[in-house]
Each structure stands twice: as C-alpha cells, then as structure tokens.
Amino acid sequence: MPDGFSAGDTAFVFICAALVMLMTPGLAFFYGGMVRVKSTLNMLVMSFISLAIVTVLWVLYGYTLAFGPDAGAGLIGNLDYLGMRGIDLNALTGTIPVTGFAAFQLMFAIITPALISGAIADRAKFAAWSLFVALWVTVVYFPVAHWVFFFDGGNGGWLGDRNGVIDFAGGTAVHINAGAAGLALALVLGKRIGFKKDPMRPHNLPLVMLGSGLLWFGWFGFNAGSALAANGVAGMAFVNTQVATAAAVLGWLAYEKIKHGAFTTLGAASGAVAGLVAITPACGSVSPLGSIAIGLIAGALCAAAISLKYKFGFDDSLDVVGVHLVGGIVGSLLIGLFATGHVGQTASGLFYGGGLGQLGKQALGVAVVLVYSFVLSWLLGQAIQKTIGFRVSEDVEVSGIDQAEHAESAYDFTAVGASLARTPAVPAAVPAEKTEVDAR
Amino acid sequence: MKLITAVIKPHRLDEVKDALQAFGVHGLTVTEANGYGRQRGHTEVYRGAEYTVDLVPKVRIEILVDDEDAEQLIDVVVKAARTGKIGDGKVWSIPVETAVRVRTGERGPDAL
C-alpha cells in the first residue's frame, strides 16, 4: 500500500461501516414495533428496501455525485467515478482506501431515506415509496452529502469545507435532511384514517426496544467512525455518543413523568434515539460534559416536540419530525454554544470564548438543508402522488397494508379454524402425505 | 336446569374452581373475556398520546346445574371470587331448556 496507509484505521472504518449497516435493520425494528399489527411488515421492508436501492445507485452514480471532485461552487461532485470506475485500489482517503471510505459513506446514504419512512407509516404504496427513495437520494441526499461531508482543502462542499459548518457525523445531512423530508411527505400523503380518533398504539414495544438498542450499538460506528481513523477524536466521539444518549434517556423520561405521570418504555427508547441524533453533528467538537447538556436538552425538547403534530394536525406517524428534525436542529445549533475548540475541530462555541460566529454558521447549515430538503421532498412527493399515486386506497389502509402490498402477514394468530384455512396444493411428489390427510 | 355465568377477576379463578369442586360441581367451562363495569378501564400513554383502554381482562366461567342447587352455587362463586375491591365482577343465572351429554346421549339433569 502507498505511504500514509494505516491498516489500523482501515480495519476500524470497515468495522464501523458494518456497524452502520446494522442500524438500518435496527431502525426497521424500531419503527416496525411502533405500528399496528396490520402494517408491521410494510414498515420493516420500507427500511430494508433502502439497503437494496441506495446501494445500487451509490455504485452507479451516488458516490461520484457526493464524493467525486467538485464540479463547481461546492454544489455537486463531477462524474469522474461513474459506476465507481477508475478508483485505484491503492488510492487513499486520508489513511484508508477510497473503497473503505465509499463503503462507510454508503451506509449513511442508506439509512437516511429509511428514516423518512416513519412519517408515512401505514399508508404508502410500496412501489411509490421505492421510487421516492431512488429519486430522493439522487436529488437530495447525494448533493447534500457533498455540501456537508466532502472536504478538499477549501475546494470541497460549500457548507462544510467552504463555510465552516460543523457536522461531524450527519446532524444536517442525515437527520435534518430526513426530518424535513418526513414532514413534507406527511403533508403530501395526509393523515391516516382515524388519526386523533382511533387508538394507534404500538403493537410490539419489545421490538421497539430491540430496534433502539441496535441503533445505539450501530451508532458508535456512525459517530466514532466519522473520524475515519482509530484515533483520539474517534475515542472522544465514542464517549460523547454514549454520554449524550444516556442523558437524553433521562431527559425524555423526566419530561414524561412530569407531564404525563409515567416513565414509559417507548419514552426511554425514543429518548435514546433523540440523544443519538443530537450528538451526531457535535460528537467531534464537544466535551463529555457538553454532551450531557446536549443530551438532556435534546431529550426534553424532543419529548415536548412530538406533541406538535397534534397541535398542527399533520400526521407524522412515528415522529420523524419530533425526533430527527428537532433533535438534529438541537445538536447542530448547540455546537455553536458547546464546541470546545480543541476536541477535534478548532472552532469554539459561545461558552468557550468563540463568540457567536460558529452559531451563525450552524444556523446557516440548519436552514439551508431544512429548506432544500423540505421543498424538494414535497415536489417529489407531489409528482409521485399525481402520477402513479403515493397513497393506498382507503380499503387497503383499513384492512391492512401488509396483505394488500406484500401478500403476507407478520404474525399468524390463527387458533380456532386453522384447519379450515386453505392449504397449499400438495405437490405430486409426496402422495403419501396427501392420502393421510384425505383419510382424516 | 340453570346456567350460571360468572365474570370474575382472573386471579380469583383458582379459588372459585376449588370452591366449586368442594361443592361437588363436576364440570365447568372457562373462557378469557374482556369487559368493564362501573370502574371502566385504564389509561395508557405512548409518546404523550393518552389512550383510554376500556376493556379489562376478565375470566368467564359457565356452569350448568340443577335448579335446586342454583342459588347455593351462586353464593359459593360470589364468596370465592370476592376481593372487596372494585372490578370483582358479576354472576348471573338463566334457565336452560335442555342439555345433552354428547358421548351417551343422556338428557336433562342426567347429562350434568
């Protein structure tokens, strides 16, 4: 390998990439447990399909649009690596092979659209959703990743490299991006039948806990891996991730106990995700004490924010806005207050003698990504709605999307009447069994 | 003949079963049931949204008895099922025209 290559860093980033990959099935369970029985599978597979679609698009043109050399003004990458051709096996990004960096970044591109699906639970056509994922990563995620994550000595992305917006592991590119898109789609598709009237209780909280646990686990890859090296910054990002998440669980539960009188399991799981979201942009620039503050604030604020949908009457089914958009904004802005100036990045926040400069930059990043993602997502959603239709029929929605869209059901509750159910045709190869059944 | 139906708290089922056995009842049918009386149900909270769950889990017991045993049997069930707290349940009886033991074809009180 060439000079500068580090086997340790490379091994670390590959493992982190695999950890981040696991977050998407984790997210599927986190969301899947929160919906009603009749749409469990649809919720799971809406995340899973992102693994398939985005991976293929990443190779075809995603990697080059996001991380190819800048095509101008820091807005988008050029087409040098179309089909991921022309990438030398020995080429490095920092101290790791380009392929390792590309694999790591691919996992971010996969989970971001999957996050959006929670906003439109129970009511989206699967084909329309799949099309949305493909279009959305193309016109929203790939460019925004370029703006935020592509560094090239001042010739990289216009937000991160040129304007100094700090987003260590994806507060703007991943969470605000997905949260704003979730809000847009919730508005395009409209409310679920029975929203605010029928109980839409989570059908399986243990699944939600399993999912949030997997997310928490994988998030170490997400955040620590974003150092792209097995070094001190990765170590600090790792610690901050753990600390902020723990504090956010406490913040969310405290808010709930005061406001609603109970410490709920769903609250603990949601608080963890809110903390993970909020520390994502900040974990490379704040101290563990700052992380406690960010976690507590994010936990309590996100717990308060989820009631917005009832107040404003939009049906963001699984609180993508309340958790990811609000959590992402909290984390991104608080960098402007809590950045120490010596953890990983050199910019200092207000509380560490840095003045208001960094806060202003963070606000710019938040506003730009929020507006860009919301507007384009809304337009894409409308275009799909007007052409192939985005929302399932009323009949399908009431009877359950799993059977209509996937011809399956998540659980078999048949007890009485199992023998009356239509059995598959017995293959000719096993006539003995058929005779036995007939004899009975 | 009478059909005695009791809807009781699930955790009192064992006591009621024992009391019925001591009284000499040979058979009974138990089903899981849901319902509410004056106390209504309970409230659950999910991400700040409160849901009132009206239906509380109960157990429903059905016993076929001779007319002369009916009143006494009701007392036995009530005594065994009572905790004194709200939600203890209800017991009622209705007349039964006929009963047949499927195995032998015996009818009426002989079938019990």
TrEMBL record, chain A:
The chain crosses the membrane at residues 12-31, 43-61, 91-116, 128-149, 169-190, 202-222, 228-255, 262-282, 288-308, 320-343, 363-381. One of its GO terms (molecular function) is ammonium channel activity. Residues 11-411 form the Ammonium transporter AmtB-like domain. Pfam families: Ammonium_transp. Belongs to the ammonia transporter channel (TC 1.A.11.2) family. Keywords: Ammonia transport, Cell membrane, Membrane, Transmembrane, Transmembrane helix, Transport. This is Ammonium transporter. One of its GO terms (cellular component) is plasma membrane. InterPro entries: Ammonium/urea_transptr, Ammonium_transpt, Ammonium_transpt_CS, NH4_transpt_AmtB-like_dom. PROSITE patterns: AMMONIUM_TRANSP. Involved in the uptake of ammonium/ammonia (NH(4)(+)/NH(3)). It comes from the Bacteria. It is a multi-pass membrane protein. The keyword Ribosomal protein does not apply. NCBIfam families: amt (TIGR00836). Homotrimer. It is found in: Cell membrane.
UniProtKB/TrEMBL annotation, chain B:
Homotrimer. Keywords: Nucleotide-binding, Phosphoprotein, Transcription, Transcription regulation. This is Nitrogen regulatory protein P-II. It comes from the Bacteria. InterPro entries: N-reg_PII, N-reg_PII-like_a/b, N-reg_PII/ATP_PRibTrfase_C, N-reg_PII_urydylation_site. Pfam families: P-II. The keyword Phosphoprotein applies. The modification O-UMP-tyrosine is found at residue 51. GO terms for cellular component: cytosol. GO terms for molecular function: ATP binding; enzyme regulator activity. The keyword Coiled coil does not apply. GO terms for biological process: regulation of nitrogen utilization.
